[in-house]
Amino acid sequence: MKENVLEIKNLHVQFPIHIGTVRAVEDVSLNLRKGEVMGLVGESGCGKSTLGFSILRLLRPPGHIASGEINYHGRDICSMPQKELLELRGRNISMIFQDPLTSLDPLYTIGDQFLETLRTHEKGIKKKIALERAADMLKNLGISPNRLHEYPHQMSGGMRQRIMIGIGLILNPDLLIADEPTTALDVIVEAQFLDLLNELREKFELTIMFITHNLGVVAQASDRITVMYGGRMAETGTAEDVFADPKHPYTQGLLASVPNIKLEQPELQAMPGAPPDLVNPPPGCVFHPRCPHVMDVCKQEVPKSFQANGHMTACWLYK
Amino acid sequence: MKNLLRYIIARTLLTIPMLFILLTIVFAVIRIMPGDPVSAMLGGHAPEKVIEQKKEELGLNKPLIVQYGNYLWQVAHLDLGTSMIFKQKVTSAITDKLPATIELTIFGMLVTLLVGVPLGAYAADNRRSGKDYLIRLFGIVIYCIPVYWLGLMFQMIFGVWLDWFPVAGRTGARVFVSTFEQTGLYIIDTLLINDWAALWDVLMHLVLPSLTLGLVLSGIFIRLTRANMLDVLKSDYILAAEARGIRHFPVVYKHGLLNAFVPILTMMGLQVSLLMAGAVLTESTFSWPGMGRLLLERIYLRDYPTIQGVIVIFALIVAFMSLIVDIIYALIDPRVRY
Ligand SMILES: Nc1ncnc2c1ncn2[C@@H]1O[C@H](COP(=O)(O)OP(=O)(O)O)[C@@H](O)[C@H]1O
Ligand code: SF4
Ligand SMILES: [Mg+2]
Q1: Angle at Cα B107 formed by Cα B93 and Cα B126, nearest 5°?
Q2: Pairs of residues, one from chain A and one from chain B, whose beta carbons lie less than 8 Å apart
Q3: Nearest partner of A249 among A281, A296, A285, A297, judged by Cα
Q4: Residue A82: inside a domain, yes or no?
Q5: Smaller CB count within 10 Å for chain A: N or C?
């Protein structure tokens, strides 16, 4: 088995707000193996972005990691001093976001933004050399190096998202967290972007956490999949296993409602019932108010993770 | 670059209708103002015939539309008429006083920006902390203080008790203005003749008036900067910059403050009129021989042509400043230039 690039252990992330505490991530444990793409799916509000931000400790106050560990090649990110963390961001782990239109600073050229990133991490790098590296990167992305002198507003969304990736990869990180990177793109641009990501992944030997609420995208892009529900992991396993034989009732419901997995998938809205309130989550299994197989134990005890058909499922059915 | 030039030209052309509107408002306001210039000049009991004659002399018996046309014609020729009280061109009274006001407002604006913007940005970066509340409190309090009162306090504390700064006028008794006056901007004048002692004297006289004017307006800028910064700091490119490992200071100030500055700048253009109003009050508190004092004096004397002339100049300044502000805006924000 390949070494783990990232190990998340019993992670809890909370937002204390005036009406209580939002438990956005509860007891999540997962590993990312070198070179794989881990797809993280779940409906909007289930804690995917929060999990992604935690990895770089980018949570906005009042959000904070309440407990747990995040190990990157064995170094615990949660307890890392700020200075070390700043070096890690961008150099070892990069993150790209949902909306490419707003992810670049509108007042600086693309070149400036590459330059700033390079200079921050490689003190004293010559401007000329930095710009050459940026130009090379643009070529990798299929973008003309002349674009370095342009401003973000002069480019399309797809191009801006490619540039975001380019800036993210300029320092050769080995882990990329992509938070719904194609959600704002139209289907054709989305397909091109996924191809590009696949190419870059090999060229840069990337490990990727691919966050999305689109089952079609996750099916196409991922080696393994983690399904989240209400801040918790519902199911995790290889993409084939999870899609061919979903075990968790939530995953089953999701897949049943989508007969053909295609790219152009609307937002997940599979089951009857509403997503859980994360301030006062239901006791026991968070999914129990919507679960067709609910049992007595489900209302009292949080399900542990059980092995079922080669993958892990947090459901009492597989005890 | 070509785009920028085109933008500047287009924006400059736009100033023309704006000026036209401003001038029309000034014309109307002067005519609506209570009191009648002729009886103010001649006293209430002048014979009918004399009044008629005076009206004719001043062109006040003509229909409004003709008066309006004459007025625009005059302004277009940089002629603001003749004072009714002193036999003196309004333009010459104004060229006498304008430099003093320009010097005061430039320094006042500098104080406003140097105090308001950094404090607002710092408060936003430390939102909800004790420092944030303190800065906000300062902003609100300083905004509520009347200019007169703040000026008096400064005069008392820094002028009388501590004796650090002079409390009135533009120069001290030992400085002879006639030896250097060329542009009327004393800082430039004293620099032109390399008279450092006089320059120092001029600067010392500027301290309290520009602090008074600047601090009062800084309250607005603290609030404005803080609010804009809070918005900007929430945006994705700030998060993205943090995710790249950019250090806190450049994230907050290079990316955050510069982006927040764009709307602040627009506000600055709008605040110029407030700055002018503040200048009028500051000048009378500090016996500053500028446009504000000229205006107050002439209102008291009911010297209508001069009042009108001063207000026209204020309007020109407002229009000009908003042009400058928009050009700086385009220089900062690439999205504007095309
Ligand atoms: N700043 C915040 N304050 C309070 N609650 C938040 C904040 N950010 C996110 N949350 C809550 O955390 C939960 C997870 O959000 P998020 O991670 O953005 O979900 P996802 O990315 O899966 O759509 C949501 O219920 C959301 O309301
Ligand atoms: S634990 Fe119970 S309620 Fe939860 S998914 Fe499994 S069967 Fe449904
Ligand atoms: Mg999200």
Answers
A1: 150
A2: 71
A3: A285
A4: yes
A5: N
Domain B90-337 has CATH 1.10.10.10: no
Annotate A274-289 with b (16+ C-beta within 10 A) or e (fewer): ebbebeebeebbbbbe
Indicate yes or no: CB of A105 within 8 angstroms of CB of B255: yes
3 state SS of A237: strand
Q: Which tens digit of pLDDT belongs to each residue from B208-254?
A: 999 999 999 999 999 999 999 999 999 999 999 999 999 999 999 99
The residue among B228, B234, B237 with the most chain A CBs within 10 A of its CB, best to mutate, is B237
Range of the domain at A262: 4-92+173-269
Can you tell me the distance from the alpha carbon of B19 to that of B316, in angstroms, rounded to the nearest whole number? Answer: 7
Question: Does residue A302 fall inside a structural domain?
Answer: no
> What pTM value is reported for the model?
0.84
Interface touch A94/B332, C-beta < 8 Å = no
ipTM over 0.95: no
CA–CA min distance A319, chain B (Å): 41
At residue A154, what are phi and psi to the nearest 5 degrees?
-85, 5
Does residue A122 belong to the interface with chain B, where contact is any CB pair within 8 Å? no
Q: Are B330 and B8 in contact (CB under 8 A)?
A: yes
For chain A, the domain total comes to 1
- DSSP letter string, B112-175: HHHHHHHHHHHHHHTTTSHHHHHHHHHHHHHHHS-HHHHHHHHIIIIIIIS--S--SSSS-TT-
